[in-house]
Amino acid sequence: MDFLDALAGGPLFAILAVLALVDSTSFGTLAIPVWLLMAPGKVRVGRMLLYLGTITLFYFVVGLAVLLGAGWIVENLGQLMESRLAMAFGMILGVGLFLWSFRLDSPAAKERARSGNGRLAAWRRRASGQEPGGLGSLMGLALGAGLVEVVSMLPYLAAIGLIAAQGPGWPASPLWLAGYCLVMVLPALVLLAARCGAGRLVERPLARLDAWFARHGASTAAWVVGAVGVVLVLNTAPAVLSAL
């Protein structure tokens, strides 16, 4: 019996906990919080909690909507994603991401990142409270991250399906969903506590890591965006071209 078979045969609580911990390593629930924690200076605990609360609430609302329409989604989502329109949209999006990756890795973008004047650096300064207008930027960052990755979070969609099929039913199922969303941000909360409790010990390593990201972040982001674009084109182009 492999890992997936063992997981599927376990208690529902254990299955959901494992899926939630997998989701906790996503871009919005872990990568961005770590990026915000690397900002120099004192950690604004309230702002970090606002970010985590916003993305948790976003996922809960999306999950609740999916839970309400779980039956329809299971029956129709597969056909919708395989339609010609969806394939064409995916191909156009892939080409756009691939072209955008070259702009992200331009010499001007690299220079702005090194000098601390890049868009990401400015966004983080506002989000962390170092510049005015941070709360809106912080909540926008959380919502934007959620929108970008929610359709690719297969463990979350699987968990919603399990709650709908094997959960306690209404009105308890939304409580299970809320618990799942809280577990998703638990590692980020642990890192926040560690950053606050051992700030002096971790400040220098975080500063070095932040400097490395400033030097190489533009190229890394460009490679990631370009790779996603290529994968989208490769997955959708055959269906689009065969329909011509």
TrEMBL record:
<feature type="transmembrane region" description="Helical">
    <location>
        <begin position="49"/>
        <end position="73"/>
    </location>
</feature>
<keyword id="KW-0472">Membrane</keyword>
<keyword id="KW-1133">Transmembrane helix</keyword>
<dbReference type="InterPro" id="IPR021315">
    <property type="entry name" value="Gap/Sap"/>
</dbReference>
<feature type="transmembrane region" description="Helical">
    <location>
        <begin position="219"/>
        <end position="241"/>
    </location>
</feature>
<protein>
    <submittedName>
        <fullName>Sap-like sulfolipid-1-addressing protein</fullName>
    </submittedName>
</protein>
<feature type="transmembrane region" description="Helical">
    <location>
        <begin position="85"/>
        <end position="102"/>
    </location>
</feature>
<feature type="transmembrane region" description="Helical">
    <location>
        <begin position="177"/>
        <end position="198"/>
    </location>
</feature>
<feature type="transmembrane region" description="Helical">
    <location>
        <begin position="12"/>
        <end position="37"/>
    </location>
</feature>
<dbReference type="Pfam" id="PF11139">
    <property type="entry name" value="SfLAP"/>
</dbReference>
<feature type="transmembrane region" description="Helical">
    <location>
        <begin position="134"/>
        <end position="165"/>
    </location>
</feature>
<keyword id="KW-0812">Transmembrane</keyword>
